Amino acid sequence: MKKISYHRHRFPPEIIKQAIWLYFRFTMSYRAVEELLAQRGIDVSYETVRRWALKFGIDYARRIKKRRPQSHTEWFLDEVFVKIGGKPMYLWRAVDGEGEVLDVLVQKRRNKKAALKLLRKLLQSQGILPTKIVTDKLRSYGAALRDLNIKHLHDTTNRLNNRAESSHVPIRRRERKMQRFKSHKSAQIFLSIHGSIYNLFNTQRHLISRKTLRQLRSITMIEWNHVTNAA
Fold first, then answer.
1. What's one GO MF term for it (predicted)?
2. For domain 74-182, which architecture applies?
3. What is the rounded distance in angstroms from the CA atom of residue 123 to the CA atom of residue 126?
């Protein structure tokens, strides 16, 4: 894997990756990251943190995706209304049976064309045909799946799609913190980066012991240092 270049940056890679980790891992603003770093004696502006997040976040997310294991064969799809730049938009989200974020798409519509775009992107990026696709009762999903000749995989059983609906919660939290997304493009970039980093650090704390949690955290940080080339 080609190393990420931190050439011509005043701050060392350890500080850059720490700032990006703080911003995407927790519900923090750029200014909050700036203050936290300042408390540790690191004088960096929030605008610099923003530029780091955009420049390096995309590379980190791409590298994390390449190294993740193959997704679970059950997919859960859902869409939610968001306001971006004062305009109504829809956030289309897909997660697998283990809660892993597969993809996130910001689109203007909630119709068959939008559902088709998400499904085609999923099938291409995941490289597998799922055993089941769970959605709500929005007709756009059924029409799109029929066009792709995989309608037999569709399941709209009541409450079965709670996994996808629950996956919107972290994004809703961030949306409030950011006082809404400012543009379609910035929202898509943030969500793509956030999804990959969320997958890497997400652990089902309530299902594991404290000892196992410590072990998982250690393994995850080793992986983070690897993808950021800042061991």
1. DNA binding
2. 2-Layer Sandwich (3.30)
3. 5
